Structure formats: C-alpha cells, structure tokens
Amino acid sequence: MKTLIETIVSALVDHPDAVVVTVKEEADRIVYVLSVHKEDMGKVIGKQGRVAKAIRTVVYAAGSSQQKKIYLEISE
C-alpha cells in the first residue's frame, strides 16, 4: 500500500524525492501519513480537494480486502 501511494503521488509532484509515506498501525486501523514538499501541497490536494479525494478513493479501494480501516492523512 505504501508503494502504491508513493507511486501515485510521485507522478503528480515536482519534487518526487521529497515524497515520504509513514505507517501508523493500530489495533483496528492503519493510518498512512503522506508528507510532500511545501511547493507540492497544492498539486496533491487539488482544486477543492479533488485530487486528494481521488487518491484516498484508490487507497481505500485497494485496502478493502484488509480487516482494518484505512486512513490517509496529508501533511507538510
């Protein structure tokens, strides 16, 4: 899942080397924290959050086979 997020986001940003995904696994959920370069935040979020929503939709669909709830957070 981590590589899926990195692959999708790296294609969107100007600084693909600054894309970092960390995983926080808890008892009932998995949280993926996406960190990108400051200048690329707008590209990852998109107009009215459309790009971020699309990324989340793909991640949630890919993780639907797991027993835990999946979350994607975007941070600087």
TrEMBL record:
It is found in: Cytoplasm. GO terms for biological process: cell wall organization; peptidoglycan biosynthetic process; regulation of cell shape. Its main location: cytoplasm. Gene3D superfamilies: 3.30.300.20. The keyword Membrane does not apply. Keywords: Cell shape, Cell wall biogenesis/degradation, Chaperone, Cytoplasm, RNA-binding. Belongs to the KhpA RNA-binding protein family. Forms a complex with KhpB. This is RNA-binding protein KhpA. It comes from Peribacillus asahii.
